[in-house]
Write a structure and sequence with these properties.
Length: 242
């Protein structure tokens, strides 16, 4: 058996920062992504060259049901046992409430909630005893003011999922936790207009976005601390206190 940590959406942004942080600590990695093969290959090369660990990448779109079986098969074919599974990939839909379609609503729910649940069901036997699962939630799942109704609602569901899963993972000796990031300076945020970014910064006590690397340390702590279980850690720079 080969021990790895799997990170969905691990080739860019928060997932990539978590990958770097874990690579630095010597964990071999399996990183999934949706479509950008070039970025995935670049991330793989960078991490392997910089940290001398093994990195595998796998195209597995979390909006596609078939990719659940794809990941399951990949772990079996490569005889992979996971030290940790990080469900990080997430999508949004910014259509206004009045224009939102049932199809888009279902797409966001499938990717953010259904996919991790059924992927976990498929691969739970491939997570080692004493290992853990970490979900990426969102501050928008705690303070309901996301522009996207589907996004905020699914991230609340992710937080509920973390707590509800604890009991179901006890027989496997697997812990489960979540991180609820505030505003993290990834492509997701960088594409927002300057004025909107300033408005966001003005609402954060630390007056700035979170660096992905600062957030990544929290994931590592959740993976390595053997007593953390059923927690969703909000990392928002003091957003609630300004
Ligand atoms: N950035 C923030 O401020 C913030 C705040 C709170 C929560 N979050 C959450 O953090 C997670 C990552 O966000 P990010 O800001 O790091 O995003 P990002 O910088 O856009 O990174 C996206 C990564 O996820 C992959 N990905 C995107 N859609 C996917 C899909 N359908 N299936 C599989 N992989 C997919 C991308 O692969 P490709 O390159 O191939 O598309 C890429 O590896 C999301 O769950 C998001 O909701 C972000």
């Amino acid at each position: 058996m080969n021990n790895y940590v799997c990170i969905t959406g691990g080739t860019k942004g928060i997932g990539k920062a978590v990958a770097s942080c874990l690579a630095q600590a010597g964990y071999p990695l399996l990183l999934t992504y949706a479509s950008d093969e070039e970025a995935a290959e670049k991330a793989r090369e960078e991490l392997e060259n910089q940290y001398g660990i093994k990195v595998l990448t796998l195209k597995a779109d979390s909006t596609d049901k078939a990719s659940i079986e794809l990941v399951g098969q990949f772990l079996e074919t490569n005889d992979i046992l996971l030290d940790a599974m990080v469900f990080n990939a997430g999508i949004t839909c910014r259509d206004p409430f009045e224009q939102m379609s049932l199809e888009e609503w279902e797409r966001v729910f499938f990717a953010n909630v259904h996919y991790p649940v059924f992927l976990l069901q498929r691969i739970v036997g491939r997570i080692r005893k004493g290992g853990s699962v970490v979900f990426t939630g969102s501050l928008m799942g705690v303070q309901p003011h996301s522009v996207s109704l589907a996004y905020g609602t699914t991230k609340s569901a992710v937080h509920a999922l973390v707590r509800n899963l604890v009991k179901h993972l006890v027989p496997y000796d697997i812990r489960v936790n979540g991180v609820a990031p505030g505003f993290v300076d990834t492509e997701w945020q960088k594409t927002k207009p300057a004025e909107i970014r300033r408005n966001i910064e003005n609402k954060i006590s630390l007056n700035r976005f979170c660096e992905p690397e600062e957030l990544a340390e929290v994931y590592r702590m959740l993976i390595e601390n053997k007593y953390m279980n059923g927690e969703v850690i909000v990392v928002d720079g003091g957003y609630s206190y300004k």
